[in-house]
Amino acid sequence: MRGLGGIRGLGELEAAVMDVLWQGAGELRVREVLAALAPQRTLAYTTVMTVLDNLHRKGWVTRELDGRAYLYRPVASREVVTARALRDLLDESRDVDAVLLHFARTVSEHESAVLRDALGPEAGHP
Amino acid sequence: MTVGVMLLLGTALVAAVAPHTLRTLARRALDPVVVLAGWALAAVGVLGTGAAGLLFVTVPALASRTPLDELVHGPWWQAVSGAPSHVAYRVVGWAALGALLAGLLRLAWVTVRDGRARRVRVRTKLDVVRLLGTPDPAPADGAPLLWLSSPSTHAFSLGGRPGLVVLTDGLRHRLPEEGLAAVVAHERAHVRGRHHLLVAVAQGLARALPFVPLFAAAPAAVREQVELAADIDAVRACGPEAVRAALLTMTGLPVTGAGIPADALAMARDAVDLRVRYLAAAAEPPTAASRLTGCGVLGAASASVPVLTASGLLIVLSAVTTAAALLG
């Protein structure tokens, strides 16, 4: 068993960094992200740089060279990324064995469709 | 060999009939936990009896000391020992061995492959929602909660220990406090009851041996029953009205009839009836004793039916042979 705690810890750090980027307007340098995290966490400059590099590799942020440092920016707003991720997460036909269990799924698609038709467009989607 | 063939016939009959029986029981609003136990033990019974049947066909001597063998003594044995085509028997024996090994290997391979793929996917999903979501600060009584900033109304859970319950902000805005508590109780019941694992096992069996009707039908049935089981847990915690309101909201149906014709509203009630019906039954939630008894009775029945069917077939066969010998 590889250190699950380690993975979770890294995930938390990535989440904290994304938080900073989503809250901060525009583009941020590593140094600025480090400063924004400083009140709660004392991190090494290289740690934040590695985390940002990972996030870039995973496609969460874009970066642009400005002088000798990169400027990092989220690829899209938190809401837009969330909407996209939700679509993926809820699309079970493509990914049947990753077992998510949903509230309100048992009412079959067919039944829901029949009901929506019967109720007219104003009964609409959430 | 006869014993083996009859065991296989019994297995095939049960594998074909059990899904209908179990679905009928489920429609009668039987406790979903009991129905799940029935599916699980029927699967164990079919797997065990099928494997034993193939083994007995391969090595008939194995069956000669079992009680099943007693059922076919008499004229039948004379008919068999006088039978001429030994080559055919041997071919069937080898085929049975091949089928047994192929089945076992396939089951093992699919289990390992799918299990690994699932763990990777679940970890990816966890990474994504952890990056996007905000953990709920309240102390967790069960799986931790995570909020996603989205106006939609979605709730789902990821299995494991401690597992995770993911909720969208839309729920906070659209559901009253009791409704929200019901959704959380429902999702935590999935995690606590290891429902994700049950669904994964059913999917694994369906993927490995899709030609067995019992296994092909299992994933959909198990999914349905775990939802009902989680509903009952939510009712225990929050009452049927809260669960019902949450269900209606999350299927996108109006909870109140504003602007909707009365008959349409009645229809909305009827369709969600699928689960609401169980909510009514859950007003008197099953006691631990009744649950245990139900699981025991249905489980024992499901697991032993393949063997009993095989025994019945053997008795009939023996009787027919005896009658034929007497007449001839």
Keyword list:
heterodimer, A: 126 residues, mainly alpha, Arc Repressor Mutant, subunit A, 5 helices, 3 strands, elongated, B: 328 residues, 5% strand
Describe the structure.
The complex is a heterodimer of chains A (126) and B (328). By secondary structure, chain A is mainly alpha-helical. In chain A, 52% of the residues lie in helices and 12% in strands. In chain A, helix 1 crosses helix 3 and helix 2 (30-37) packs across helix 3. Residues 1-8 and 119-126 of chain A have low confidence and may be disordered. With 328 residues, chain B is mainly α. Chain B has one domain (2-327). The model of chain B is unreliable at 256-272 (pLDDT under 50).
Task: Give a quick precis of the structure.
By secondary structure, chain A is mostly helical.
Low-confidence stretches of chain B: 256-272
Look at the structure and give the CATH class of the domain at 4-74 in chain A: Mainly Alpha
Report the biggest beta sheet of chain A as strand number plus sense, adding barrel if it closes: 2 strands, antiparallel
Structural class of chain A: mainly alpha
Secondary-structure-based class of chain B equals: mainly alpha
- The ordered string of helix (H) and strand (E) elements of chain B is HHHHHEEEEHHHHHHH
Blueprint (SSEs and pairs):
The complex is a heterodimer of chains A (126) and B (328).
Chain A: H1 4-23, H2 30-37, H3 45-57, E1 61-66, E2 69-74, H4 78-90, E3 100-102, H5 109-119
Antiparallel strand pairs in A: 1-2
Helix pairs in contact in A: 1-3, 2-3
Chain B: H1 2-27, H2 32-58, H3 67-70, H4 75-81, H5 86-132, E1 134-135, E2 145-148, E3 155-158, E4 164-168, H6 169-174, H7 177-192, H8 195-208, H9 213-238, H10 240-250, H11 262-281, H12 288-327
Parallel strand pairs in B: 2-4
Antiparallel strand pairs in B: 1-2, 3-4
Helix pairs in contact in B: 1-2, 1-9, 1-12, 2-5, 2-9, 2-12, 5-8, 7-9, 7-10, 8-9, 9-10, 10-11
